[in-house]
From TrEMBL, chains A, B:
<feature type="binding site">
    <location>
        <position position="326"/>
    </location>
    <ligand>
        <name>NADP(+)</name>
    </ligand>
</feature>
<dbReference type="GO" id="GO:0046983">
    <property type="term" value="F:protein dimerization activity"/>
</dbReference>
<feature type="binding site">
    <location>
        <position position="157"/>
    </location>
    <ligand>
        <name>substrate</name>
    </ligand>
</feature>
<dbReference type="GO" id="GO:0009088">
    <property type="term" value="P:threonine biosynthetic process"/>
</dbReference>
<feature type="binding site">
    <location>
        <position position="101"/>
    </location>
    <ligand>
        <name>phosphate</name>
    </ligand>
</feature>
<protein>
    <recommendedName>
        <fullName>Aspartate-semialdehyde dehydrogenase</fullName>
        <ecNumber>1.2.1.11</ecNumber>
    </recommendedName>
</protein>
<comment type="similarity">
    <text>Belongs to the aspartate-semialdehyde dehydrogenase family.</text>
</comment>
<dbReference type="GO" id="GO:0051287">
    <property type="term" value="F:NAD binding"/>
</dbReference>
<dbReference type="InterPro" id="IPR000534">
    <property type="entry name" value="Semialdehyde_DH_NAD-bd"/>
</dbReference>
<feature type="domain" description="Semialdehyde dehydrogenase NAD-binding">
    <location>
        <begin position="6"/>
        <end position="121"/>
    </location>
</feature>
<dbReference type="InterPro" id="IPR036291">
    <property type="entry name" value="NAD(P)-bd_dom_sf"/>
</dbReference>
<keyword id="KW-0486">Methionine biosynthesis</keyword>
<dbReference type="GO" id="GO:0050661">
    <property type="term" value="F:NADP binding"/>
</dbReference>
<dbReference type="Pfam" id="PF02774">
    <property type="entry name" value="Semialdhyde_dhC"/>
</dbReference>
<dbReference type="GO" id="GO:0071266">
    <property type="term" value="P:'de novo' L-methionine biosynthetic process"/>
</dbReference>
<keyword id="KW-0457">Lysine biosynthesis</keyword>
<feature type="binding site">
    <location>
        <position position="182"/>
    </location>
    <ligand>
        <name>NADP(+)</name>
    </ligand>
</feature>
Length: 348, 348
């Protein structure tokens, strides 16, 4: 059997969509054609792909005619509207938004962690949240080897997680500051959450709000990390608590993670395990000041892990520092990996 | 009895020293004279104080002649050398460096938390580390009311903690970036730790290293938070784990803190308690997107607390977000408060 796919990218002109098209060039997938879909105002723009240029078409239901794989990264409401249309047209949907993630009929997949869930798909597969994905890549090998009882994570998230407009907002604020504008008066129109009422400067600040607040005082971003973790690891008994914070970094999410494992282990064993783990690059040598850094993660597909150390009060407690490019492994690259894995498992 | 003090500020031209002289203007202390001491190269500079100007003198042993209170903020090695000299000359020393903090003959004091420790002083009183102080102000009222078993803290620390040169380094890197220098090539000569071998850009980055590494994989900054907490709270049984991270913020340290208390309580009770607590300003209303922010803490003496929420797995577990100006409550203001409290307790 020789298959080759027509792949549509919905939201092809956005921060993540652009990366998806770029990464498809090197993907381990036979590709006949890539269709770039976006809103009306982007129609006619061109996007380079291999030795040619793709002309952006409007995102409509009919645009999915003849499409085998549709990768969505155009916002939750557009996924809600068009993903079922793409499925009706015979495509398999890989959705980057949060819209379908907790739907019990939709597998939520990190290919290094739960590839077998793909077999249960009914047309739509969800890509987890960026901050969840890198944590899963780092912790799943530990869970498999030593069990995992508890996770407490505090994040240091980049503005690119809120799209190209978030990056522009940070860069503009930095320029305003250099030109003499006081910190509290920097122009803020997007962050901390595009859809929320108030906006605060992110330059030279730390904002403990990503996405909107729920009634229990947790933000939606925190809720995602906690609930997606349980779904991806297929274990509702894992205790997970998240505090999600935006900081003035362009790209690359960092996470300070505390875990409690079930079986005794050591820092050395964890380092050896993670050095071999799929998708992980271990950077952990305090004597050389070697640890993961956001700026070094940019444009790299790996999840970087370092600063592994034992808790001084709990022999089964460990601390880690986990960093990854939120636009790649946190979004675009994970989507491509899902498509590759489905091809490999002959699910397409 | 009517007392009035001659106060020396050692390191008067530094980031913290400057703030100390500023704050002495409004201090609740009868002051006869302020002496500004610094290294030879600053001698002759003037510092405004009330309606006059103080001329900077050289930091020598003899400079402490006639001094009642000597506030040190000139680095650990200068405190080591000159603090005992100041004591010999009859001064009480309030030291901002880490040099004497764990000395069992030296009280380590946050005036809102353990003022009575001042009575045991033998000439030198230590000011705790900036990141420890704000955590103590927020957690001591909780410890007193409900007991405190465990603390897990991840910090988001500003560059001003590394002095005026740290601020200049961040600002220069930001300018380089705006002018087109790639992130990995920004000029780094100070951070993450002035005395360490390698230096990394802090602009648009998060560095999980503050101060040098110890053999157990924890940094000295983390070690300080863990050990100073136990000393200040006079309780070696409290479990404390810290991950200390520098982020591109000019001033204002933020902390994501998880605690486990001994007695049952609620978010509402904790909010009511902290709203009344000395030195604390509660900013906790998710419905109004109200929470502490680094840029709002600058030049304020308070410790701001918000985002208080119950852990979803442990009814005695709570999460908080704590922010304070590291140069004020984290350093200069706490020193002044120590002097005021010693005056109040008639220990001078």
């Amino acid at each position: 059997m020789s298959k080759s796919y027509t792949i549509a990218v919905a939201g092809a002109t956005g921060a993540v969509g652009t990366k998806i098209v770029e990464l498809l060039e090197g993907a381990n997938l036979p590709i006949t054609k890539v269709k770039a879909l976006a809103s009306k105002r982007s129609v006619g723009k061109t996007i380079p792909f291999k030795n040619t240029e793709i002309i952006v078409e409007e995102l409509t239901a009919d645009a999915f005619s003849g499409v085998d794989i549709a990768i969505f990264s155009a916002g939750g409401s557009l996924s809600e509207k068009f993903a079922p249309e793409a499925v009706k047209h015979g495509a398999v949907v890989i959705d980057n938004t949060s819209h379908f993630r907790m739907d019990e009929n939709v597998p939520l997949v990190v290919p290094e962690v739960n590839p077998e869930s793909l077999r249960e798909h009914q047309g739509i597969i969800a890509n987890p949240n960026c901050s969840t994905i890198q944590m899963m890549v780092a912790l799943e090998p530990i869970r498999q080897a030593f069990g995992l009882e508890k996770i407490i994570v505090s994040t240091y998230q980049a503005v690119s997680g809120s799209g190209a407009r978030g990056i522009a907002e940070l860069e503009n604020q930095v320029k305003e500051y250099i030109d003499g504008t006081p910190l509290k008066e920097l122009t803020a129109e997007i962050l901390p959450a595009g859809g929320d009422k108030k906006h605060y400067p992110i330059a030279f600040n730390a904002l403990p709000q990503i996405d909107v607040f729920g009634e229990d005082g947790y933000t939606l971003e925190e809720w995602k990390m906690m609930n997606e973790t349980k779904k991806i690891m297929s274990d509702d008994s894992i205790k997970v608590a998240a505090t999600c914070v935006r900081i003035p970094v362009v790209s690359g999410h960092s996470e300070s993670i505390y875990i409690e494992v079930e079986k005794e282990t050591s820092v050395k064993e964890l380092q050896e395990l993670l050095a071999q783990a799929p998708g992980v690059v271990l950077q952990d040598d305090p004597s050389q000041q070697l640890y993961p850094q956001a700026i070094n993660s940019i444009d790299d597909k790996a999840t970087f892990v370092g600063r592994i150390r034992r808790d001084l009060d709990n022999p089964k407690g460990f601390h880690l520092w986990v960093v990854s490019d939120n636009l790649l492994k946190g979004a675009a690259w994970n989507s491509i990996q899902i498509a590759e894995k489905m091809h490999e498992l002959e699910l397409l």
